[in-house]
Amino acid sequence: MKLVEVKEGKTKFLAPEMDENLNFPPSGAPVFFNKRMELNRDTTILMLKCLDAESYLDAMSATGVRGIRVFNECGINATVNDKSSGAIPLLEYNRDTYAPVLEITNRDANAIMHERRFDAVDIDPFGTPAPFLNAAAGCAKKYLFITATDTAPLCGSHLKAGIRRYFARPINNEYHSEMGLRILLGYAVREIVKYDRGVEPLFSFAREHFVRIYLKLSYGAGKADKAISSIGYIHQCKKCPYRTEQKGLLAETHTCPECGEKLTAAGPLWLGAVSRTDIIDEMLTKINQSKTESEPMFGTAPKIEKLLNTCRNELETSTFYDYHVLSRYWKVSPVAIDTVIERLKDAGYRASRVHYAGTGIKTDAPLDEIRKVLT
Ligand code: SAM
């Protein structure tokens, strides 16, 4: 394994050299590092700068980059854990060279999370986080951060795997990325509320091959019940673009009011807000402040700023329309997305872009009104 010194944020560390074309360390490298997850890690630093965490567990740390950055850039006591003994020499080198008081543990993530507690816990596995969320729900005192890279099961293109992992049924359609994010949120809520704990998403997004969610946890059966009240189903028509949502754990049977078809239920999933605007505002403020620093703090700042601004303005509907899909359905040529949004607003409805897709629109306008502005 050829190692190179990498700089991310204000932090230097040693990592396996990336393959120039694939952007991945060569297969067989004993320690994992993916430069393309820099934006994911930058949001972690930005988020922790807005929160009151004093201890942080990077439960699956590989090179330790996330924990080292949290320690260096947020001043938070960080513990970096990895089950693989092959990761430990590099973690030790990185600690000794770049972050002297970092704690290193070589445990199965579930074992350490059952034994110890941390203010903030970060789960960043290969693929699904599902096997780790039970232990993480007890381990995290205040905040739980989760990455999932198994977008195919989450979004419905590997349906059976999605059902096995998340005990929920997604539908693979034009808003599958939002559905996957909401299935993950719904599953995390299910794992947390059984401990009589409340849960509230602070910031969630889907990008490329991953979903990232930042959760605030609280205590009390009442708070848990409140979280459960945001769980439910999306009912989607197979024949036309009509969809509706239904809260509650029991999937009801619905018929499409547009075409009379029986609707298909997706879920159970999270129907509430996926982010808090006050947190996004704080993250935007921190990004702006970082621009005045002599040394750049976030390598992905322009991309994060764009993401945060789009998420900030996204309507709180649980699905979005792809207006190209709608245009094909109504057999019209699509106009510019900003024109569609303006027309919807002029007609008295709320409308926004989405971060999930460049052609996605969220609106509270009924289908008839959307058709009028598109045709
Ligand atoms: N967080 C890292 C980063 O930002 O670069 C990347 C982590 S990588 C995707 C996943 C890591 O989880 C690997 O290093 C792997 O050895 C470790 N891992 C897999 N299963 C684990 C388990 N059950 N307990 C602890 N670590 C585990």
TrEMBL record:
NCBIfam families: TRM1. One of its GO terms (biological process) is tRNA N2-guanine methylation. InterPro entries: SAM-dependent_MTases_sf, Trm1, TRM1_arc_bac, tRNA_met_Trm1_C. It catalyses: guanosine(26) in tRNA + 2 S-adenosyl-L-methionine = N(2)-dimethylguanosine(26) in tRNA + 2 S-adenosyl-L-homocysteine + 2 H(+). GO terms for molecular function: metal ion binding; tRNA (guanine(26)-N2)-dimethyltransferase activity; tRNA binding. Zn(2+) binds at residues 237, 240, 256, 259. S-adenosyl-L-methionine binds at residues 41, 66, 82, 108-109. Its EC number is 2.1.1.216. Transmembrane segments: none annotated. HAMAP family: tRNA_dimethyltr_TRM1. The keyword Methyltransferase applies. It comes from Methanomicrobium antiquum. PANTHER family: N 2 ,N 2 -DIMETHYLGUANOSINE TRNA METHYLTRANSFERASE, TRNA (GUANINE(26)-N(2))-DIMETHYLTRANSFERASE. The keyword Transcription does not apply. It holds the Pfam family TRM. Belongs to the class I-like SAM-binding methyltransferase superfamily. Trm1 family. Keywords: Metal-binding, Methyltransferase, RNA-binding, S-adenosyl-L-methionine, Transferase, tRNA processing, tRNA-binding, Zinc. This is tRNA (guanine(26)-N(2))-dimethyltransferase. Dimethylates a single guanine residue at position 26 of a number of tRNAs using S-adenosyl-L-methionine as donor of the methyl groups. Signal peptide: none annotated.
